[in-house]
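[job 4471] stage=fold_predict status=RUNNING
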Amino acid sequence: MAHDPGWRGRPARSALEWPGMRSHYAWLPPHAEASMTGAHQVGVSFSAHAGQERRAAGRTVRGDIPPGTAFVTGADPISWLGVAEPTESLEIYPDPTLLASIGFDTDRPRIEPGTGVRDGVVFAAASLLKRVHVTGAELSDIEASTLTHRLVEHLGQVYASGAGAGTRAARGTLDQATVDQVVQYVHAHLAGPITLDELAGLAALSPYHFARAFKSTTGMPPHRFVTTTRLETAKAALVNSRRPVAEIAHAVGFGNVSHFRRLFHRELGLRPAQLRR
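[job 4471] inference complete, writing structure tokens
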């Protein structure tokens, strides 16, 4: 497939089939007409939206959507009632049979329709798949299958009816409350240094055991999760503001602007200046 994410003002969509799931990537310019997120999916908005109005299950919600926000839909799709900013999203549609095997009711996930959440596991999975759509990076069948089962297990633990704060994490992984705490810490400290010791302290683990448990839980090692969060936050700022590239790079923790540009191109498929054009 041709990897054109549509940055130059053109809409772009692509779909890929994986063991146990399929992923849909979309880049859309601002649009007044309604668009839709399908039923029975889990996905991430990689773009930022201010005061965005959406409707699901007869309920209308309006509010800001920070980049990296996750949405889990049941039987009711989400209608986006016109979007003032460029939209970049990735939707994952797990195999219903796989979800049913863990007792997940796809019609009634444990989340209000149209509500977005910070979810490090969903963000990591969507980021790994988006990189394939946008840059043509490789993801083997066994890697994709592992990602599928990790995501489905997470959905069952966090979003299935009856799931809750008391749900125990599998051995060698982190519970959802700890992952949420780490994600919140990363977002709050993007501009400064973030060390493995600091993140491990949030989980009350040694750096070694935390790094292993975090990767087992999210599919990403901690350093890559932090870098991906920084780059996605920078991308949203580049799209929605005219701030200088160097200022944005420093605001998300990159002291070396040349390194930021190289990393941005490698991970996202284009350079900051190309994105702006």
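[job 4471] summary: The chain is about 40% helix and 20% strand.
[job 4471] exit 0
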